Amino acid sequence: MSIKVFYFASLKDHVGRSEDDLTYTCLLTVKEVWTHVNADTALPGNTLAAVNMEYVEFDDMVNDGDVVAFFPPVTGG
User: Fold this and answer.
1) What is the four-CA torsion angle of 47, 42, 22, 49, rounded to 10 degrees?
2) What is the CATH code of the structural domain delimited by 2-71?
3) Cα→Cα distances 65→8, 10, 39, Å
């Protein structure tokens, strides 16, 4: 199974890239996706996640072909 992972705004600078491709053999949660592609980088506090452009919780499962995005909280003005 494979998924695409994107990082936005300051998270892109934090991890040093804008995207990853992840191939895996078992079901993963959103949190486990972060851990697999960023083993040496802790998940910053207040990070938001989306799967297929829908906000999700970090314990939600990811499916084959999903697109996972991580981004800092969004504010408006």
Assistant:
1) -10
2) 3.10.20.30
3) 20, 25, 22
Cβ 30 vs Cβ 59: under 8 Å: yes
Question: Domains of the chain: which residue ranges?
Answer: 2-71
Average pLDDT value for residue range 52-74: 95
Average pLDDT on 27-48 reads 95
Model-wide pTM > 0.85: yes
31/48 Cα distance (integer angstroms): 11
* 3 state DSSP class of 12: helix
Residue 21's pLDDT is what? 97
User: Cα–Cα distance between 52 and 68 in angstroms, integer?
Assistant: 6
